[in-house]
Write a structure and sequence with these properties.
- It is a single chain.
- The protein is 70% helix and 0% strand.
- The chain is built from 4 helices and no strands.
- With 153 residues, the protein is mainly α.
- It has a domain of 91 residues.
- Belongs to the TatB family.
Length: 153
């Protein structure tokens, strides 16, 4: 970069004041300032574009490595799956041969018949009945009617 100090800036300003003149100097300084601003924006845009292209190249490389890793995993899973299928076929063949030799009848699965919708508590019903725990909810009016003293006739 060009090293411009305060003394050099003062010298340039004095020469510009003499050459251009005091009337046109503010307009020229404004024009030079806008041109320098445009040049800085252009340079920063070029830098940003170069950085984007570098990041895009890095992302493409990363995408390729991830795709290669995924392809390797897929191939290894396929080979292990084919080995598993081969082993499974051998095991089922030996199991079916062993079943043919044995004529043991295995009973079919029978569902236990529990109602899964029914909520079951941890305390047994017989204990609740013995200790006097209420098992059914009653409304307030039903409770009042139940415990209202009977009238004597």
């Amino acid at each position: 970069m060009i090293d411009i100090g305060l003394s050099k800036m003062a010298l340039i300003g004095a020469v510009a004041l003499i050459v251009i003149g005091p009337e046109k100097l503010p307009r020229v300084a404004r024009t030079v300032g806008t041109l320098l601003g445009k040049a800085q924006r252009y340079v920063s845009d070029v830098k940003a574009e170069v950085n984007r292209s570098m990041e895009l190249d890095e992302l493409k490389k990363m995408k390729d490595t991830v795709e290669n890793a995924a392809r390797d995993v897929h191939n290894s899973i396929q080979t292990s799956a084919s080995e598993f299928e081969k082993d499974w076929a051998e095991a089922t063949d030996t199991a079916s041969a062993a079943l043919n030799e044995q004529t043991t009848v295995v009973p079919a699965y029978k569902h236990p018949g529990k109602n899964w919708r029914l909520k079951r508590g941890a305390v047994p019903q017989w204990y609740k009945a013995k200790s006097g725990v209420r098992t059914k909810a009653q409304s307030g009016a039903a409770r009042v009617a139940r415990f209202r003293p009977q009238k004597f006739h």
